Amino acid sequence: MLCTDDYRALARPRLPADVWDYLDGGSGAELTLDANRRLFDRAELRPRVLVDVSVCDTAGKLLGDALTTPVGVAPTAYHRLAHRDGEVATARGARGALFVVSIFASRSLEDIAAAATGPLWLQLYWLRRRAVLAELARRAQDAGYRALVLTVDAPRIGQRLRDQRNGFAVDPAVRAVNLDDAIMAASHEHREGASAIATHAAQTFDQTVTWADLAWLRGRTELPLVLKGVLTAEDADRAVEHGVDAIVVSNHGGRQLDGAVPALRALPEVVAAVAGRCPVLLDGGVRHGRDVFIALALGASAVLVGRPALWALAVDGADGVAGLLTMLTGELEHTMALAGRPRLADIGRDAVLLPDRRD
After folding, report:
1. 61 with 278: CB under 8 angstroms?
2. What are phi and psi of 225, to 5 degrees?
3. DSSP structure class, residue 211
4. What is the CATH number of domain 4-352?
5. Residue of 79, 200, 252, 288 marked active site
6. DSSP-derived secondary structure letter, 153
7. Are 214 and 239 in contact (CB under 8 A)?
8. Do 232 and 270 contact (CB within 8 A), yes or no?
9. What is the mean pLDDT of the chain?
10. What digits encode the pLDDT tens for the residues 63-75?
11. What's the pLDDT score for residue 15?
12. What's the DSSP call for residue 57?
């Protein structure tokens, strides 16, 4: 395995076609899915020379936790679709890296925590049944999770045409085990021309939630609160005003609003609005250590990878995830050396040029 595309190439034939489309696809015409990747490819680096790069250090801290790498695993549902051990294998493979566990994990929060060697965060969607959210927050805190991540860009599921064409439904043998079966029933019901994921979300997601509701969630736990899905300076500023502890700049990997701004394009304005008041992370389109370097240069404290982690999981379980994260971190370290930026603190805004919006 020499690059993420190697994992992708091996993962695809190992997965059923409808599962592959569910994991790999985006919404609408997949404009944002493509734009996330394209902007990384068009960014240019500004290397410095005659710098001692004999040792390049990728270690840092995030919300008080020491990390050996700024590369973590993004929240994605149902890891048992990719590997029989599911999120337990992902947690083992993370080997000290941050792992954000989905509310729709197919292994229990407690089993994942027992397998983990690094910090875990729990991702949540705002469900109509608030008591369920409160119970998940309590369980996460009791199991040693370090933060809650509220996804805020999905009041309903994007129009994912691949899933609709496939009539995609989650295999009943692969369950979101941390939620009652009654809550999840619709996600397993196959209907031609419809996505069971979208049907389930329409029945269970609370579309009335606003900024005022964040206080309720904060009151359920002592864990830091992270908002995922912020793409504008306006929302970033409001998030900080409402006391959030970190922000993830994300367009849901191109799976929600098609045509939304690429995450990398949104990153600088979010960082500027936050003005150092809380950490900013990024996900969406990260495939290489060079991409990690670019995001760090534009102000991210860390990046999260979603699809590549699932590709690696499908290929070789925990060892695949470990190999992927080791590879991305090694590529980052190599980029740091060639760019003359041996510490994360050296990777500043002057290290990268983004193409003009009009290009």
Report:
1. no
2. -110, 125
3. G
4. 3.20.20.70
5. 252
6. S
7. no
8. yes
9. 97
10. 999 999 999 999 9
11. 98
12. B
Q: Kindly provide the b/e burial profile for residues 105-125, where b requires at least 16 CB atoms within 10 angstroms of the residue's own CB.
A: bbbebebbbebbebbbbbbbb
Where in the chain are the domains? Answer: 4-352
Are the C-beta atoms of 247 and 270 separated by less than 8 Å? yes
- List the structure tokens of 124: 């949540």
The token duo for 184 is: 């999840």
What sections of 250-306 are H helices per DSSP? 263-274, 289-297
Q: Do 111 and 90 meet the contact criterion of CB atoms below 8 Å apart?
A: no
- pLDDT greater than 80 at residue 357: no
Distance CA 233, CA 230 (A): 8
* Position 359 pLDDT exceeds 80: no
Q: What is the pLDDT of residue 358?
A: 57
For helices 307-338 and 17-24, what crossing angle results, to 10°? Answer: 50
What are the tokens at 205?
């997601």
Q: Between helices 307-338 and 289-297, what is the axis angle to 10°?
A: 70
Instruction: Quickly list H helices, 119-225.
Output: 130-143, 161-166, 181-184, 196-204, 214-218
The label of the residue with tokens 């050996």 reads 68
Asked if 150 and 130 touch (Cβ cutoff 8 Å), the reply is: no
Quick check: 336 and 104 in contact, CB under 8 A? no
CA 204 to mean position of chain CA atoms? 22
- 306: its two tokens: 């979603």
Under 8 Å between Cβ of 25 and 255: yes
Going by C-alpha positions, the residue among 219, 217, 212 that lies closest to residue 242 is 212
Q: Per-residue pLDDT averaged across 168-178, rounded? A: 97
Q: Is 252 a catalytic residue?
A: yes
Tens of pLDDT, residues 278-330: 999 999 999 999 999 999 999 999 999 999 999 999 999 999 999 999 999 99
Does pLDDT of 206 surpass 90? yes
| pLDDT tens digit sequence for 181-199 | 999 999 999 999 999 999 9
- What single-letter amino acid sits at 140? A
Helices (H) then strands (E): counts for the chain: 14, 12
Is 181 buried (19+), middle (13-18) or exposed (0-12) by CB count in 10 A? exposed
Q: How many CB atoms sit inside 10 A of residue 357's CB?
A: 7
CB 95 within 8 A of CB 325: yes
